[in-house]
Write a structure and sequence with these properties.
By secondary structure, this protein is an alpha/beta fold. The protein has 2 domains: about 5-100, Translation factors (Elongation Factor Tu (Ef-tu), domain 3), CATH 2.40.30; about 110-225, Nucleotide-binding domain of ferredoxin-NADP reductase (FNR) module (Rossmann fold, 3-Layer(aba) Sandwich), CATH 3.40.50. It is built from 6 helices and 15 strands. It has helices at about 30-35, 80-85, 125-135, 155-160, 180-190, 200-215; strands spanning about 5-20, 20-25, 40-45, 55-65, 70-75, 95-100, 110-120, 140-145, 165-170, 175, 195-200, 220, 240-245, 250-255, 260-265. Strands 10-9-8-7-11-12-15 form a 7-stranded mixed β-sheet, sandwiched between helices. A 6-stranded antiparallel barrel has the order 1-2-5-4-3-6. It has a two-stranded antiparallel sheet with strand order 13-14. The longest helix has 13 residues, at about 200-215.
Amino acid sequence: MSDTPVQTSATVLTVRRVQDYHAMTLVAPAVAERFRPGQFVAVAAGGAYSARLVRRMFGVYEVKPDYGGTVEIVFANTEPGTAWLADRSSRDRIDLVGPLGRPFRLPRDPVHCLLVGGGPGGAALFALADTLRRRGCQIHFVLGGATGRHVFGSRMAQRVGDSAVVTTEDGSTGERGTVREVLPRVIAETGADVVYACGPTPLLRTVSRTAAEFGLPSQVSVQEFLGTTGACGVGTCMTCVLPVHGEDGVTRMARACAEGPVLRGDRVRWGDLGTIPFDALGAPRALGLPDGGARQ
């Protein structure tokens, strides 16, 4: 099996509503057999004669290589491209590229794993949970959202996890509150050895910092940086960069689609997102400053 992504014409099997989101199952055997948890796919939206040139990027909720080779994605209908996808029917064809990006790193030995998710991005945790379970790991979930309709997979988490905590800001599902409020307690109760996270950037920042306070490694999927209305997905357009410091202590601008989407949470410079830090490798230099750098 090759790790090289493929471009294929995938057949729509089903499109269904799941709370406030859409779940689309595509028949794409070549993508399914290459997929590893944490990778994503790039979907053409709008058809052959559409002006929507850039692809939409989605994490993968589930793959079934042994059942016709299906790939399932979950997305919110937030703009014309996703609206077009939500309107597809069974047997429609969609141009698909994948799997793309770097996957989650898996533990060598059975450990206690805490999986934290929010919104449709949290769907990618379930393919990871399946792989971790087959490695003998314990699986614990924390899922959060503004309301119960914004929490994807709460029932599935309770079914496949050793434990599952759901939080909503309005208290409509699970505990009233936020992931930030319950995370320290859940880490202590589950004896977590590693934390994985998918979802909005504020959630990833919270997970990374809380895991670090407990001395735990964290892996976060920065899918939000891939763009809500599309990008290239292969590292060419440079619209998904964020500052990450390496083992050598040097900050580099990493591409979420190529060096990510999965990154070590403690390596992301969360306070500098949206900027090119003055000390980053290759950062623009301002003339005339005593230190030769452009401070921000």
